[in-house]
Amino acid sequence: MIYNHSSCLAIHDLSGVGKCSLTIALPVLSACGVQTAAMPTAILSTHTGGFTGFTYRDLTEDLLPMAQHWEELGLGFSALYSGFLGSAQQTDIVEDIFRRFRQNALVVVDPVLGDEGKLYQTITPQMAEGMKKLCASADLVVPNLTEAAYLLGRDYQDGQLGREQAAEILEGLCAMGPKKAVLTGVRCDGGLGAACLEAGGSPEFYVMEELPGSYHGTGDLFASILVGGLLNSMSLGEACWLAVRFTHKTIETTRAIGGDHRYGPKFEAHLPELAAEAEAYREKKAGQ
């Protein structure tokens, strides 16, 4: 086995029930061989998608003390990866944390704001505005169509998205500051998947057959696989295709098992496959 020396700081919420955020990022990145540190932005009894009456503890006051302690320990990371934030103030705090640890690190922002044209229950207009500034400081942003519309001030478009329209959105995201952008939930060429762009390059599209239904947590799954692929020295396109394929597999498994989809994607059975593919890629790179 070729050991992966990469490390990642995952800045996401922790939901006790309903797989998403840290309960997806930690096992997925670990399967990719990435040593991962967790910085919880909030703790919830369940995620906010489809559940009501959930408990919610904002951890804004804990973030900087955690970061300062890690600085005292001399810690560094190969990637800084943020997702769901617990308050508007956290966008500035996370940007500060990026400044503290970004030396030689890939900075990835999954701007968790909403889906299907609407903001999530806990997202305020101030948080959405702050997310624009945070995205501008990133190396890579990974929004869905709803989030991209909010970030760019565009009208939300559902349904089929032409390649030219997707390319225009990706170029707009890169114009905000990031050198790379991945747009998820892209329906084109008769399939569903993602499109990616490196500033100055040409967009790439990766789609598979669309499966019926809505599956909470698949956005976090996609982004975490994407980060894991990049930390195994994959190109943006290679990591994007890996994320599309494994997310699709997980949705197939989740549909086959059935039950209440609010409890999250059934990705666990596919972690050994993900680990094997990441290891095979490391061996391939080592042999070159």
Topology:
Blueprint lengths: L6 E11 L4 H10 L3 E12 L9 E3 L1 H13 L6 E4 L6 H13 L4 E4 L4 E2 L2 E2 L5 H12 L3 E2 L3 H8 L10 H13 L4 E9 L2 E8 L5 E5 L9 H13 L5 H22 L13 H17 L1
Parallel strand pairs: 1-2, 1-4, 4-5, 5-8, 8-9
Antiparallel strand pairs: 2-3, 6-7, 9-10, 10-11
Helix pairs in contact: 1-7, 1-9, 2-3, 3-4, 7-8
CA gyration radius, whole angstroms: 18 Å
Report on the biggest sheet. 9 strands, mixed
Shape: globular
Going by helix content, strand content and strand pairing, the class is alpha/beta
Helix share, percent:
40-55%
Task: Summarize the structure in words.
Helices cover 42% and strands 22% of the residues. It contains nine helices and eleven strands. Helix 1 (22-31) runs parallel beside helix 7 (218-230). The protein is globular.
Structure in a nutshell:
The protein has helices at residues 22-31, 60-72, 89-101, 125-136, 145-152, 163-175, 218-230, 236-257, 271-287, and strands spanning 7-17, 35-46, 56-58, 79-82, 106-109, 114-115, 118-119, 140-141, 180-188, 191-198, 204-208. The protein is α/β, with parallel strands linked by helices. The strands form two sheets. The chain has a nine-stranded mixed beta sheet, sandwiched between helices. Strands 6-7 form a two-stranded antiparallel sheet.
